[in-house]
Structure formats: C-alpha cells, structure tokens
Predict the 3D structure of the following.
Amino acid sequence: MEPNQKSLRKQVAVYEKSNLRASIWQLVNTLVPFVLLWILAYQSLSLSYILTLGIAVIAAGFLVRTFIIFHDCCHHSFFKNRKANMILGTVTGILTVFPYHQWQHDHSVHHATSSNLDKRGTGDIWVLTVDEYLAASTWKRLKYRMYRNPLVMFGLGPIYVFLLKNRFNRKGARLNERLNTYITNVAIVTISAILCLTLGWEQFLFVQAPIFLISGSLGIWLFYVQHTFEDSYFEEDKHWEYVKAAVEGSSFYKLPKILQWLTGNIGYHHVHHLSPRVPNYKLEAVHNHIPPLQNVPTISLATSISSLKFRLWDEQAKKFVGFKEIKALGKKQKEYFRPEKA
C-alpha cells in the first residue's frame, strides 16, 4: 500500500468511535417519527388515499433512515458494544425485513470484494463486462437485460429481495445466523398478523405496501447509484486495491440536506467503504476534514439519473457503457469472424 493510502486510513480511524448520545438521539428522531407517520397514514385513510400516499412517502424516508441504523449495527459502528449492535440490528432488521446475521455476512463480503472483477456475486448488483456480455448466450443476455431494466430492478427488485430472498438462509449458514433469520421471519409475520387483525388486512396493506415499495426502491437506487457511475473502478484481483476500490469505486452522492439526513449520510459512500466502522453521523465530518476524500467521483441528484444508461463495464476503456454503445462492437466482431466467400 502506498504511503498516502496508509496515511488516509490512519486519518479516518480517528472517527471510528461511536457516540452513545448521538446514537440514541438518532434512534429517537428516526423511530418515533416513523411510528407516528405510520399511525397518521392509517388515520388518513378515512379522509383521502392521496393524503395517505403523501404521508407514506415521508414515512418511507424514515424507514430508509431506519435501515441505515440497521446497516451501522451490522458493521458494529452504531454502538461500542457488539451485543447491543446485534440486538438493535435484529429489531431494526424486523422493521426493514432484513435478517441481521444473514445480511451482515453478505454485506461484509461486499465490502471485502467491491469492484473486484474476480470476486463478484455476493452482496452486489449483477455486473457483466462488455466481453462477458458479447460472449454470453442469448438466454443469459436476455436475463441480464431484464435484470438491469429499471422497472425490474427498482420495481420488482424490492419484492423479490426483501419479501422472498431475505426469508431463506444461505447455503452453509451457521446456526446463529439461521436462528436469527427464523426469529426475524416469525416476528415479521406476528407483527403483520396483529396489525391485520387489529386494523383490518386491507387497511394494513393500504398503508404498509406503499411505504415498503417506496423505501425498497429508494434503498436499491442508493446502492445502485453509489457503485454505478461512468468512471468507476473495477480491477482483476491481482491489480485490485482496497483503498482505490473505496474512494474510486464508490461515489460521493451529493444530495439536498433533507435527503442527506433521511438517508443517514450514506451518500458519503466513499468514506463508508474506506472505513465501515465510522458511524453514519460522522461520515460528513470525515469527508469535510480530510481533503483527499473531497477529490472523489461526485454525482448530484440530477446527474445521477444518467447512471440508468450504464449497464456493462468496459475493461478496455475503464468505464461503464450502455447496451447501445456495444451494438457496433458486436457487429464488428461478427464481421471479423465471418468466413470469407470462396
């Protein structure tokens, strides 16, 4: 590792200790408003469903913020005590329908292998290189195109990942991880059943469904845009470097202050990947006080929309490209390999 990279990690390490008062205050200003907004959305059903949907949008923002707390617990960065992180992580995991130990495992692998072309697959969004796509079968290309379609990724994605995939243990999971998944599933079903019996299943779905779908889509969008931008970083294992993957392969998503607050500063994703032990409420301070971290790929709310066109990683150009950009390349390859007429 280069000297400046060692220095960078040393500077960030100063911010890795959580603050109990800040953590508790974040719990209060996140969970209390979420519960109140959920109740308000339910009460508004008798007035106007348009009003209910409006409240659901705000509640979804607080559920995203709840997920960031869960996310910090998985990194043992929200509290100093590991058991406290596990307990709170399990509770917030129930609210966000994520099993604590299962997601902690997959997300840890993601951090250890992010932007490594030879270690893709766990905790990542599916990415193919241009060469892999051109060499793929028609069926694999079709699956990949469907997967990368925004309607599938941000519409069906939350339903598949959160409601289906998260309900099952991964192969080789240890006993504590399996039990945690079972406990999470039972708690989700129990809470849902109680609310359905108390409020009515239709009323429950009218409130919970939009909150779930909106927050889920926002969550996937944040994860997608923070690793899918034109001049990102991907390397084969022999050339891959952790610090470069963090600061060049993770973006600084510069959001308006209210959205930055609701998303728990996760837009400072380059800082988070450099040191997952930094609590979310310290990420902005790290970015502001360490100059090298300010010279990283930066995207805004407006420019982030362009990331939707990036579908494949071009290993030669070292950037993301769209399907349209490789059509010409595909045709050239066909012409090159076409046998000459006798």
Q: What stands out?
A: Strands lie at 128-129, 252-254, 298-300, 312-314, 319-321. The chain has a mean pLDDT of 92. DSSP finds 15 helices and five strands in the chain. The CA atoms of residues 30 and 62 lie 6 Å apart.
